[in-house]
Design goal:
alpha+beta; 333 residues; OB fold (Dihydrolipoamide Acetyltransferase, E2P); 4-stranded antiparallel beta sheet; 19 strands; 2 domains; 15-stranded mixed beta sheet; Aminopeptidase
Amino acid sequence: MISTDVDFDMPGLQFGKLRVPHSVHRSAYGHIQIPIAVAANGHGPTVLLTGGVHGDEYEGPIALARLAREIDVNRVTGRIIIAPTLNHPAFVAGTRVSPIDGVNLNRIFPGRRDGTITEMIAHYVTAELLPRADCLIDLHAGGSSLQYLPTLLAPRWSDPQKASRVEALIDAFEPENVIYFDSVRALSGEDRVIGNYAHQKNVDFLTGEFGGGSSVNIDGLSTAEKGIRGVLAHLGVLPADQRATPRDRGIRRFAMDDPGLYAFADRRGFFEPRFALGQTLPSGAVAGLIHDIDNPWSAPVVVHFRTGGIAMCVRTFSLVEAGDCIGHLASEI
């Protein structure tokens, strides 16, 4: 259902739109415009770069828009497809999910051709963008409700060839931290995520959490910008001089598979954290206190991490409901 005014096979640099049909009371023949850029020159890999899958995450859109503005297409070998605000309705609203249909784009893949606005976007990515790509980098942050220590996330594969390619991409991105995770399933166990369909299309995949709190993390933005250019140089799509100066120390590698690394509220209240991002915590450490909203004289409930590790994520909002994640750690490997 979605059309575009860019030609993915045409050499040169193009700035255009994806046009998502949206017939409503105020605009009978209307459509939603999603910005897209394509830089193509010569023969080489195709790299798909996406941001704004959640509309309250900003490091990705800034990094990708800046790359598109600064790119010299004559130095490109291959093709770069850039969608800095993929879930544009959510981005305009500054919300995690679309204000039109209330759907989380990264929980609705592969989408539906004739579905809601968000389902149509997911379907376009699955049916049109991923089949063109050799590599996908999907940039995220914690959004409004969470803040992250800037961290690259990479899939863990048992297949030696896939694992080797991912390791080369990690080294090229050169983050301070990388967490290996199950890219086929979300934390909740569902497989309706973009990483799963990148895997199904045999597209190498990296993602990451580069900040949060519905603001811009300066360190996370710098990590994302340098990392993207490093991967593009590694793949030969941009010349080697696009690589950043190597960092003084190596990459710290983590896993977050153990459920004990996560802390969740088990009741309504307001949350007082007892840890800071980057802090090393022992097993059983206090994650925070949940205070009673209606009876402040009651002793707060203490929430613990069962497993020790490095603090990677903390909740932004103090108000919590039962089931809200208040933070998580990662274990160094």
